[in-house]
């Protein structure tokens, strides 16, 4: 059986999460306070649509909740999902304040759930540029220790 996922926050990064989620799993639900964003992403992936994180957490049972909300909400939303008994994949940064990070870890431990943070940079423009240079051979023979 394929794992199920819910996405909280349907902005630009949520679209990338959804693209990857549907490769091994099922995007069962999405949530955003901006109805148009939630409806658009939900329609694209045939996922149930919510406008409140509390409603989603009460009515869905995904294997993983993906937090794609603005940075300042990562801690609050992750803790809510963990307290509701879900594993959480949180977009970077994990949180803004160290104290919030500690609360997130404590919530994961208390709920016996997994808390993951996305830490990839492969789509960032400087990284894409460097990858193109490497692939083209332009950096062949170059040493940073010259």
Explain the overall architecture.
With 146 residues, the protein is an alpha/beta fold. It has a single domain (4-121), classed as Rossmann fold, CATH 3.40.50. The chain is 44% helix and 17% strand. It is built from 6 helices and 6 strands, in the order βαβαβαβαβαβα. It has helices at residues 12-21, 35-45, 53-59, 74-83, 98-111, 125-136; strands at 4-8, 26-31, 48-50, 64-67, 87-90, 115-117. It has a 6-stranded parallel sheet, sandwiched between helices. β5, α5 and β6 form a beta-alpha-beta unit. α4 (74-83) runs parallel beside α5 (98-111). The chain is globular and about 55 Å long. The model has no long low-confidence stretch (mean pLDDT 91).
What distance lies between the first and last C-alpha atoms, to the nearest angstrom?
A: 53 Å
Radius of gyration: 18 Å
- Count of DSSP-assigned helices: 6
The dominant shape is globular
Helix content: 40-55%
Largest sheet: 6 strands, parallel
CATH class: Alpha Beta
How much of the residues is beta strand, in percent? 15-25%
- What structural class do the secondary elements suggest? alpha/beta
The overall pLDDT, averaged over residues, is 91
